[in-house]
Design a protein that fits this description.
Layout lengths: L1 H28 L9 H19 L6 H23 L1 H7 L4 E5 L2 E2 L1 H6 L4 H10 L8 E6 L5 E5 L22 E5 L2 E2 L1 H6 L4 H10 L7 E6 L5 E5 L6 H4 L4
Antiparallel strand pairs: 1-2, 1-3, 3-4, 5-6, 5-7, 7-8
Helix pairs in contact: 1-2, 1-3, 2-3, 3-4
Length: about 240
Amino acid sequence: MNNFLDATSFVICRAALSSLVIFLLAKITGPRQITQLTFLDYITGITIGNLAAEMSVNSDIPWYLPIIAMSLYTFLSISAAFITNKSINGRKILTGIPTLLIFKGKVIEKNLSKHNFDINDLLTQLRVKGYFNLSNIEYAILETTGDISVLPKENYRPTILKDISVPTTQSGLFANVIIDGNIMEANLRNMKKDRKWLDNEVSSRGYKIKDVILMTLDSEDNINIQLKNQKIKDDEDNYFL
C-alpha cells in the first residue's frame, strides 16, 4: 500500500512539474494555431511532449534532465524562428517555401509529386475549400503549413449574390471521368456517356487518355482536361522565392 501511495505521489508531483514547464515554454515560444506550425515546430512539439511524459512516470531519470532537454528543444524552435525571420535562405531550408500546384488553371504534376501529393489528394483539398470544378481555379498554392490556398478565376470569386439582385441557378456536381490516365467507368456511366464518346472527346483535342491526369465532366457536358507533366517557366516555378 505504501509503495502504491509513493508511486502515485511521485507521478502526481512529476506530472504537475512537467505541465508547469510545458506551460512556461509555450509562453516563451508564443501562441500559434495548429495550421501555423511548421514541420520543425511540429517535430519539436512532439518531442517535448514525449520528454514530459517520460519525466512524469520514469523514476530512473532525474527530474531536471528532461527539463534541460525540453528547454534545448524550445531554444532550437526559437532560434529557427529567428533565422527564418532574418534570412530568406534560412527560411527556405528550415520551413520551405509555398509551392504552386495549379498555375493559371494548369495542374503542375511535378510539384504534386515533390510533396507526395496525387491528383486525388488535390481534388479532396479543393473540395474542402468549396471548389468542385477545377476549371474555376486560377491558382492553388501549397503553403509550408500543409494547407492549400486557392485563388479562383475572376468570374468565380466569392460574392453575395442576393445583395446585387442577380438570379442564380444551382450548379450540378462534377464527375471525374479520367484520373491519372485511368478511366472512371462508373462515373462515365453515371453521366450517361460511354467509352466511345470519351475516346472521341479526348482524341478530338489531340490528346491520349494515358496523357490525361484529370478530366472532369459536368451535367451540362462542359469538359475540363488537365494533362500530365505540364510545364511552367522557371521564373514562374520559383514565384515565391
